[in-house]
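Predict the 3D structure for this chain.
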Amino acid sequence: MSTRRQFVCQTAAVLMACCLIASVLPGFAAAQDLSAKPNIIFIMVDDMGYHDLGCYGSKKILTPNIDRMCAEGMKFTDCYSGAPNCAPARSTLMTGYHKGHTPVRSNTGGVPLFPEDVTVAEVLKKAGYATGGVGKWGLGNQGRDGAAERQGFDVFFGYYNQWHAHTYYTHLYRNSERVDLNEPFTHYTFSANRGKVERNSRYTHYAIFDETVKFIKENKDRPFFCYAPWTLPHAAWEIPEDDPAWALYKDKPWDDIAKVAAAMVSILDRNVGEILALLKELGIDERTIIFFTSDNGADRQFYEALNSCGEMSGFKGLLSEGGIRVPMIVRWPGRIQAGQVSDLPWYFPDVMPTLAQLAGVLAEVPKDIDGISIVPTLLGKGKQETHKYLFWQENGQAVRMGHWKGIGMPGAVKLYDLSKDIGEKNDLAAQHPNIAKQISDFMAEAWVEPRSQQDDGRYPAPKGEPEKKTKR
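Done. Predicted structure below.
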């Protein structure tokens, strides 16, 4: 009798322990049940500023759907990109390493990941996820090392090379196979640089969004990871004249680039609304966590006209707050409490461990990454680990340590108190030499010389399109 009683007590204890672990580590209980793993949609738009959304203070751009997503989820005030420009930001997100360690650090457009580089998609594949990417890859050319389908994605549709993404009227690729978007009729667009333009191919973002919807529908009955690095509102600033979003801004007293960029953001907002409606239609809303962010700060061509960075200084390409601080909204009905605002400082290297913990495969994440999981903050369970510091590099270095931010190089740091000076106007290095020294030491610690950044080939501008001369 005592043996039977001991067995019952031991069994109960094991069950209680499993329940406790499952409550702290979402995905643990789902390890044996794929249907319990959350679907993950990660939307990352291109060159949208921190203040370009209504929920982040915009008075000029209409974003009712994203604002509603924000109200239904969690808004982060202190989230950052991993870099102030395209390719390195994507590399930090995909690999979990900050700019001092991540594989792709050059922004020339065709520097690839290597086969040994582990991506978020590869980690989630080990949890049984379908993995799809739609938009701009930027970490390896089609058919070559680093191509998305060689780095854990079942399917990728869109642009592979960044330079190819500098037009919205061109062919795209699906798993490195060319997809033409020609149409049998002519339509007109408005280009901020060329005025009214006659086109006979489809606007690439429309095709990219359709593929996003297709991937979600095709995988609704299994856990999926939909990575959506959409290209709007990146240059070139061109939009179909009959798009409803253009009608909202075409008569505004702004320059043409600002008007088109604003309309592009409203297209994104419309698409987010359509995704949210689709999740409910498919009955998977409460099984899906959705992230919305931007790859870096606003482009300098429109940030002033739209007040894209608010009180922050700088823009895309710079290490000031306007170049690296980004909006981040996360929604998961029934799991993330609605209407929350968090000031947790975190950045793109944290995406890999966060998604891995949500999927129950945190053990599959490389042990030496720089990222940490923010699941405790998202779900309000467990103790949140915090960074000793955040690190960036681009024509200098930057470190955030608590509310302090240093910009410069080791031994020559300008110091700002972000709790009082988000515009980074008052250099306090002379008043706080010990803090400046600590940040300088962190800069030296964080930077490791990169492997070869040999570009695998810059994608030529499509025929008839002007080739950009500036880095994007």
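The longest strand covers residues 182-191.
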